[in-house]
Specification:
34% of the residues lie in helices and 16% in strands. By secondary structure, it is of the alpha/beta class. The protein has two domains: 194 residues, 3-Layer(aba) Sandwich (Rossmann fold); 102 residues, Alpha-Beta Complex (UDP-galactose 4-epimerase, domain 1), CATH 3.90.25.10. The chain is globular. It starts with a strand and ends with a helix.
């Protein structure tokens, strides 16, 4: 059975890959995006595109019209940056979600797939991160994501809305926003190195992560909306190939052929979680999830893509809402 599906943030990185996946499966896809972090060139030409912000009730009503499924990916996804722009982040993410949820319920949307964030876990004593661990958010973005999850549970109980919460972990790959200096470390490293500049590492670089190639992620986001066993569940989506940020920098330098450059270490980012990687056992059980792209191969593919696109200048905010204790890299707007 084919569906009419709304993808919010469908001009962005993960959203545009998800749109491609859903269209390849034969669905009619509507996209709503304000293009603050996405690009019209990312949008599949077979999709119906609406330019607009989810903070607008009118935009949300138009977006959900005739839709039976929603995949909600739109967000100002800036964990560390949200400490210094909490008001903007709350309006963009929390209020935007509420407007969308109101419209979805009033329009009788049947299924709502929400992409949350690994940041909701915060610091955990036991690793890897598992879905049954208590949340410990350390920034406004994570607090908002955790609140959205709770609201989905409440409205599901009240209205019977079928929902799934997916928690992607450190996704990278083609179409990542190269202009963004605040998030997506692999993208930032590649963008700088291809301009002949060394990667900047916050702290000593021993932070551990497991990075997930985008094409190993979005097919399972798509699948979640059609898997009854996923309804009412929170599910991690992520690679289990754990590495350090130092190792990521080394691979980027090798794959770009710039081993002559040496990483520069900056002071640690405020409130940064030292270790963040997940168990994907639940995703394997419910969604038959698997990763097929090792980190080095994924970085190689992304380097090739950035070479074709050309590196870009970072676009910094004119002024953060809070500047005290903001990383110097940001306040000095280093390129």
């Amino acid at each position: 059975m084919k569906h009419t599906i709304l993808v919010t943030g469908g001009a962005g990185f993960m959203g545009s890959h998800l749109v491609d996946q859903l269209i390849s499966e034969g669905h009619h896809v509507k996209v709503v995006d304000n293009l603050s972090g996405g690009y019209l060139s990312n949008v599949n030409p077979k999709a119906e595109f609406i330019k607009g912000d989810l903070q607008s009730a009118k935009v949300c009503r138009k977006a959900v019209e005739g839709v039976d499924m929603v995949y909600h990916l739109a967000a100002h996804a800036a964990e560390g940056q949200s400490l210094f722009c909490p008001v903007y982040n709350a309006k963009s993410n929390y209020i935007g979600f509420l407007q969308l949820l109101e419209a979805a319920i009033n329009s009788d949307v049947k299924v709502f797939v929400h992409t949350s964030s690994m940041s909701v876990y915060g610091h955990q004593k036991e690793m890897p991160m598992r879905e049954d661990q208590p949340y410990n958010p350390k920034d406004p973005y994570a607090v908002g994501k955790a609140a959205i999850e709770q609201l989905l549970l409440i409205y599901s109980e009240l209205f019977g809305l079928k929902y799934t919460i997916l928690i992607p972990h450190n996704v990278y790959g083609e179409r990542q926003n190269l202009n963004d200096p605040y998030r997506n470390v692999i993208s930032i490293f590649i963008n700088r190195v291809l301009q002949g500049k060394p990667p900047i590492i916050f702290g000593d670089g021993t932070q551990t992560r497991a990075f997930t190639y985008v094409r190993d992620c979005t097919p399972y986001i798509a699948k979640a909306g059609f898997t009854s066993e996923a309804f009412g569940e929170r599910i991690n989506i992520g690679s289990e190939e754990v590495t350090t940020i130092n190792e990521v920098a080394r691979i980027v330098l090798e794959e770009t052929g710039r081993t002559d450059l040496r990483p520069v270490h900056a002071p640690p980012r405020p409130m940064e979680v030292k270790h963040a990687y997940c168990s994907s056992e639940k995703a394997r059980r419910i969604l038959d999830y698997k990763t097929t792209t090792p980190l080095r191969i994924g970085i190689r593919k992304m380097v090739d893509w950035v070479r074709r696109e050309g590196p870009r200048s970072f676009k910094y905010w004119n002024r953060l809402e809070i500047t005290k204790k903001a990383p110097e890299v940001w306040t000095k707007k280093l390129q």
